[in-house]
Specification:
single chain; 13 strands; EC 4.1.1.35; NAD+ binding; UDP-glucuronate decarboxylase activity; binds nicotinamide-adenine-dinucleotide; golgi apparatus; Rossmann fold; two-stranded parallel ribbon; 9 helices; alpha/beta; 313 residues; 38% helix; NAD
């Protein structure tokens, strides 16, 4: 049994991670300021003797005794991270400093939930971990992209300077139950619009592609990375390389929800990448990880979740 800290544990990915860690016998402390997360995501764990929850902002130091830290705290959707961009950068940078400081004090192994956004609007395709990215440092997405890039720098400097055991995971678009219904990300947008009988909004011409990883696959990769040998730090891409255009995704959601909604087109937001797709070779080689859940199966689970929560709200 490990004593594990999950920051951002009441969020979409964090809550699934807490579930999986508890199921395998770990003792989990979930820390969250509930900015985008919700206690409802972990309500089923409250009362479990292996689970604790603490309201805390990672921009402030934390003093707890743990052996492993998963640092997920950070709003992940553009609507949320652009709402208070200064706080977003602080969460990534001060949050990383505070969690790395904690890891150093208690000699814990620490994993950073980084992002494919560190590649910006990539000039190479698919992206391998040695690509340095094409990021606008002063645009409206930079609070997130540059915040996460700086956090990666801090992780590697703590590793080199203080010998910390670090793991950096670059997460590509992930979807599944417990996504925030209003977070503006394409999968939740399309599903919520379809279930409400509204037309599905496509930004740009809809030919831009994204890859979509189901949450169970993602959490599996995260745990494998944390458990990997100490000399493997990453960064490692975790994502599903299957590429779909926005139009293909919208049409699949329309078919699976059975809505009669249509597609409506709006201008593309600033700095929206045209194409993003992970090269997973490193994850396959070092973690023996590959995504298993098809887009269709993952969408069915996600639609079932939104169907039940939207009716209950
Ligand atoms: N979901 C994805 O597709 C994706 C892709 C790339 C990277 N990531 C990264 O994975 C992590 C989790 O993403 P998610 O999709 O679960 O998003 P989310 O918004 O559902 O979860 C983030 C959690 O962090 C908490 N949080 C935010 N600021 C905080 C702070 N200052 N102190 C404490 N808690 C704070 C939020 O309340 C929320 O519970 C994030 O770091 C995100 O950048 C996610």
């Amino acid at each position: 049994m490990n004593k594990v800290l999950v920051t951002g544990g009441a969020g979409f990915l964090g809550s699934h991670l807490c579930d999986r860690l508890i199921a395998r016998g770990d003792d989990v402390l979930c820390v969250d300021n509930f900015y985008t997360g919700n206690k409802r995501n972990v309500a089923h764990l409250i009362g479990n003797p292996s689970f604790d929850i603490m309201r805390h902002d990672v921009c402030w130091p934390l003093y707890v005794e743990v052996e492993r830290i998963f640092n997920l705290a950070c709003p992940a959707s553009p609507i949320h991270y652009q709402n208070d961009p200064v706080q977003t950068t602080k969460t990534s940078v001060h949050g990383a400093i505070n969690m790395l400081g904690l890891a150093k004090r208690v000699k814990a192994r620490i994993l950073q939930a980084s992002t494919s956004e560190v590649y910006g609007d990539p000039a190479v395709h698919p992206q391998t971990e040695d690509y340095w990215g094409n990021v606008n440092p002063i645009g409206i997405r930079s609070c997130y992209d540059e915040g996460k890039r700086c956090a990666e720098t801090l992780f590697f400097d703590y590793h080199r300077q203080h010998g910390l055991e670090v793991k950096v995971m670059r997460i590509f678009n992930t979807y599944g139950p417990r996504m925030h219904p209003e977070d503006g990300r394409v999968v939740s947008n399309f599903i919520v619009q379809a279930l409400r009988g509204q037309d599905l909004t496509i930004y740009g011409d809809g030919m831009q592609t994204r890859s979509f990883c189901y949450v169970d696959d993602l959490v599996d990769g995260m745990i494998r990375l944390m458990d990997s040998p100490a000399d493997f730090t990453g960064p490692v891409n975790i994502g599903n390389p299957g590429e779909f255009t926005m139009i293909e995704l919208a049409e699949t959601v329309i078919r699976l929800t059975g809505t009669s909604a249509k597609l409506v087109f709006q201008p593309l937001p600033q700095d929206d990448p045209k194409q993003r797709c992970p090269d997973n070779s490193l994850a396959k080689e070092k973690l023996n990880w590959q995504p298993k859940v098809s887009l269709e199966d993952g969408l069915k689970e996600t639609i079932a979740y939104f169907r039940s929560t939207l009716t209950n709200d």
